Amino acid sequence: MQLKDTIKLMESDDYKERFKAEYHQTLERFNKLYKLLIKHEAGTLDFVPSCPIEVLKEQKMYMDNYLHVLEVRAEIENIKLDEC
Asked: What pLDDT does 5 receive?
């Protein structure tokens, strides 16, 4: 799912739909950051980040933890994250 695909969910009156949008937006951003860090580590990143890599790694760690919390909450509240 791309960020643009979450617009309808974000506009919903149903909090579960907005929750799904938040999860998928965070997941999309996490995956892009993860790929950036992989390319940096492999030496194939085609630009020099203006932010220190250690800060980006810390951001990835927090995003990963946040995704975990969202997934646990989704399980508790019976929110199907794969149904959008």
From this structure: 84
